[in-house]
Design a protein that fits this description.
The protein is α+β, with helices and mostly antiparallel strands. 37% of the residues lie in helices and 27% in strands. The protein has twelve helices and 20 strands. Bound molecules: arabino-flavin-adenine dinucleotide and P-hydroxybenzoic acid.
Length: 390
């Protein structure tokens, strides 16, 4: 098999890159280890930056988003019962859109299928070779048959646990990580959201987030210690704990119901440098993980893909490789600033359990007071939350 760009991973990064390359007349093949049903069964991100919605529009996959996306202009931060609304639209002129990652992925699949894009599912035993040449190869098995894909470039969009980052020589790789001693227990429910905008609540018992997927489908999260077991959390226990962490007025408004999805995800930061080695490029979770507090994971994947798709288009149009040579530096600059925001927001809003001190709890309160009393502080929060310029 031959193509111009071999893409490993058929999540949002891989599918969006393949679709953007197609729109620019560049051929690609996507190799995904799971079935399409499995990929679409994942419940993950829900909040899209304006830059992300513009990229989906550029890829020709924004019809569902335009029809069903919920545009938001502000967010509530609650600290020890006091609420601070950040009017990020008023402060930055940018909105955020609620539209689930699952729907984004489904829209991308439809577009790839409509344009007869080559997305192979249930591939296995992927091996990369000749990455330090102009003709790298991807070996893999598909329907029990050994296959080989010759291409000009290989892009690892295979997430944190994928194989592409492992193909980078240890001598050139630098990995940075920081893990929090807690995670998020998330529930998806067919119930109307408790508030028209998102609510991030700091509480002595732990963090809580009230989000949504539509006007009839809600997404809630509570902070839990990392050793919590999902089987120990009945729906009733979850709802009772969420109510304890919300301001009384909001808790009274909460409409509960059966969970249609319930899972625990860890909160951690990870960045791999560089994001390119010779003909291998990394994009999305294959290169970086951010704590979900800042809602940056999916949005950062989109900014990587934006940089890389533009660089590849320039290369194929005029053999100008400056964008490709600059990709890692350009992508990492935005990755690190988004990581900073996500990491510091996680610090501000979560109960550190046994690692807190009287001093750090006072600092946390001062941070919130500053947000509450300073428009400059709220502008700084807002410009990070809506997504820094590309
Ligand atoms: P993905 O991990 O989505 O996709 C990688 C793809 O590569 C997968 O389909 C995988 O099957 C495939 N793959 C892996 N190894 C392979 C191999 N060897 N061969 C072939 N294919 C292979 N972000 C937010 O902004 N907000 C959230 O609320 C949020 N919640 C999350 C909850 C969870 C449990 C997780 C894990 C992540 C969450 N994220 C959230 C982050 C998430 O949305 C990611 O940023 C996003 O999925 C990144 O997309 P990709 O880079 O495509 O990686
Ligand atoms: C979500 O709706 O899944 C969501 C929203 C905001 C976040 C994180 C997750 O900061």
């Amino acid at each position: 098999m031959k193509t111009q760009v071999g893409i490993i991973g058929g999540g949002p990064s891989g599918l969006l890159l393949s679709q953007l390359l197609y729109v620019n007349g560049i051929d690609s093949v996507v190799l995904e280890k799971h079935s399409k049903q499995h990929v679409l069964s994942r419940i993950r991100a829900g909040l899209l930056e304006q830059g992300t919605t513009q990229m989906l529009d550029e890829a020709g996959v924004a019809a569902g988003l335009s029809k069903n996306g919920l545009e938001h202009e502000g967010v509530d931060l609650v600290f020890e019962g006091r609420s601070c609304r950040v009017d990020f639209f008023g402060l930055t002129g940018k909105k955020m859109t609620i539209y689930g990652q699952t729907e984004v992925t489904r829209d991308l699949y439809e577009a790839r299928e409509k344009s007869a894009g080559c997305v192979l599912h249930e591939v296995s035993d992927i091996s990369l070779s000749a990455l330090d040449t102009e003709k790298p190869e991807i070996g893999f098995y598909h329907h029990d048959q050994a296959k080989s894909l010759q291409c000009d470039f290989v892009v690892g969009c295979d997430g944190y646990h994928g194989v592409s980052r492992m193909a980078m020589p240890e001598a050139i790789k630098r990995e940075y990580q920081s893990s929090f001693p807690f995670g998020w227990l998330g529930v998806l429910s067919e119930t109307p959201p408790v508030s028209p905008e998102l609510v991030y609540a700091y509480h002595q018992r732990g963090f809580a987030l009230c989000s949504m997927r539509s006007t009839t489908r809600s997404r809630y999260y509570i902070q839990v210690p990392l050793d919590e077991q999902i089987d120990d959390w009945s729906d009733d226990r979850f709802w009772e704990e969420l109510k304890k962490r919300l301001p009384p007025g909001l808790a009274r408004e909460l409409i509960t119901g059966p969970s249609i999805e319930k899972s625990i995800a860890p909160l951690r930061s990870f960045v791999c440098e560089p994001m390119r080695w010779k003909s291998l490029f990394l994009a999305g979770d294959a290169a970086h993980i951010v704590p979900t507090t800042g809602a940056k994971g999916l949005n950062l994947a989109v900014s990587d893909v934006r940089y890389l798709s533009r660089a590849l288009s320039k290369y194929y149009q005029s053999r100008d490789s400056r964008g490709l040579d600059n990709y890692s530096r350009q992508a990492l600059a935005r990755v690190w600033k988004s990581s900073r925001f996500s990491w510091s927001l996680t610090q501000l809003l979560h109960q550190p359990y046994d690692r807190d001190s009287a001093f750090s709890s006072r600092i946390r309160r001062a941070e919130f007071e500053y947000l509450l009393t300073s428009e400059v502080a709220r502008l700084s929060f807002a410009e990070n939350y809506v997504g820094l310029p590309y």
